[in-house]
Amino acid sequence: MTARMPIVGGNWKMNTDLASAVELAEDVVAGCGTMVESCDVAMFPPFPYLQAVGRALGHHGLVLGAQDVYPKPDGAFTGEVSTAMLLDLHAEMVLVGHSERRHVIGERDDLIAAKLTTALAAGLKVVLCIGETKEQRTAGTTRDVLNTQLTAGLGTVDADGMRDVIIAYEPVWAIGTGETATPEDAESEHAFVRERLAELYDADIADATRIQYGGSVKPNNAEELIAGPNIDGFLVGGASLKADDFLAIIRAAAATADAGSSERSYREARNA
Ligand code: PGA
What we know:
Elements: E1 7-11, H1 18-32, E2 40-44, H2 50-57, E3 63-66, H3 83-88, E4 93-96, H4 99-105, H5 109-121, E5 125-130, H6 134-138, H7 142-154, E6 165-169, H8 183-200, H9 203-208, E7 211-214, H10 219-226, E8 233-236, H11 243-254, H12 261-271
The structure holds 2-phosphoglycolic acid.
């Protein structure tokens, strides 16, 4: 089995102002220290603060990410942001398919797939978010929903492209609600996603792809969630706005990395 480097992302959503965004980034950088050697750490500030947060992140090994992107290179798309604009600001990663984009803004799978392929083609790493609503869970259709969102979202991504894709399983009913999937339920859905990846691609790709859990991740539940063998890190909303809480979650994820050999083998595998 490939050792997967854990990855923790902070999705700030439509929060912070310029001063608090910079302060939060600086506090996380200061607290991360050598943890970035055993856990990838990404921050997704609002678009207007990307540049300032990027500067605050400096060259300490943390990743600057964007919350969204539009799948056209330029032109008359009022309010949208292109991959080139993100790359200009040194963003390296982007979220696509977040549940708030799907359910509040109304994005559909074909747009999400277009965003994902455009971002990959531009050299960005992409976090594809998938997850079922409470109604879908109650109706017993969770796996159909995950399967559809995964298959449609990945669209035409080939095996090579999968090197730069991270999946985030985020049950919609757990996002911002304080209600978290049990570690057993989270692990079981992650294992299902990995099985589907093996069917869509192959066992090696399924094994190498990182699957984050998201939905009310806090310092007090991170440790038991990350114990799941198929849970490779977190996408954190509310708790990423407090440096101490975010750092505690990173610490829980970093502690699972088998210091030394597994990190190297993951990096070697990715760089091969
Ligand atoms: P939450 O958000 O941690 O506030 O539940 C997670 C997310 O939306 O990615």
